[in-house]
# Entry
Amino acid sequence: MGKVMDHKSLRILLLSIIDPKGDRGGAGTATRGFLELLQQDPLDARIECVLPTSALRRFHRVRQLTSVARSLVSPLPSKAVFTYSRRFLRTVKQVLHQQEFDLILLNGSDLFWLLPALPPRMPRTLLAHNIEHSLFLSQINSVDPPSPLRRMLLRDWRRLQEYELSGLRRIEHIIFLSSEDAEFAQRECPHIKTLVVPPLFDYQPLERLHTKDPSGMQIGFLANFGWWPNREGLRWFLKGVFPYTDADTRLHLFGEKSSDLAPHHPRIVHHGFLSRTQDVWPICDFMICPVFSGGGASIKFAEAVYNGVPMLASSFAARGLPLKPDPSIILLDHAEEWIRFLRSPAAQALRSRRVPAPLAEAFRMEVHVEPVQTFIREVMQSRRSV
# Structure
């Protein structure tokens, strides 16, 4: 097992479901924020990343379907089959043989199948983006497949549940993005050690000097619309809410694939992907997040709050985030409530609000450096005593 070379040099092997440098979705944002915490003093971690083939975007949908078929003859559930490859396994073993590391960080529980290949006394921890089997069940229910296919998918779900809970117990130390996910895992696996680290940001948020657009209310939805809960949420809003808003209410869509879902409409503005989310906030009076399924924590919800931007969202979108009731964050769950709010003086009042600094502060990276680095030291000490 590798040893810490000095007090300012910790070597970490990152085994990741996504490319932390190139991924544009929420998983990439959350991973980059967490890695930056590890790279700060005093740990000053040096991180080497090994990715499975599935982290590449090519033929993603085809590989998903193939994984479901392969899982029928595999001891692994389909989500684990998706990341499994002999080449990836050989690469991990080779890297561990050729280099010394102080810690292994699994980025995603899909990779639990790698645990038997890791040196038994090597400290390891998991960054858990979701409770994967809960997310998978939510997806099955949202699709509502025909009965034979549903039975097959539910069998796969039960195997995923067993696979994930077994892996959580084996790895023992887990960092969660969502407090709800951490509480669930703690109930199912009472002996694990957990830490909740919400989505984090280190750039200086823009001072919100927003003035109302006299031409009407400007609302925004920022998301990766390739992610199915965001697609469902946008469809829900476009079908059940937006047609009943005032004629001077304009919807701004930011993010990949939004133009595939929303029609051309005089009150809908397609901005596409913006490399700087800071450019989003000055355009809108407030953001919306109509998400009712999925898992983990909503990265874009957290980022809007970090920037002081008021929110209208579902209560599900706020799940697991460190939030307290505040008039700048409105949580409603039914289309009729959204319509009434958007047509009311309360929506006009929300346009002028700002999320207070203490709420935004919870998503500032600097606040979490010490607890995360302390947790990592505890992981290393506990594993060495095994």
Remarks:
- Confidence is low (pLDDT under 50) at residues 1-6.
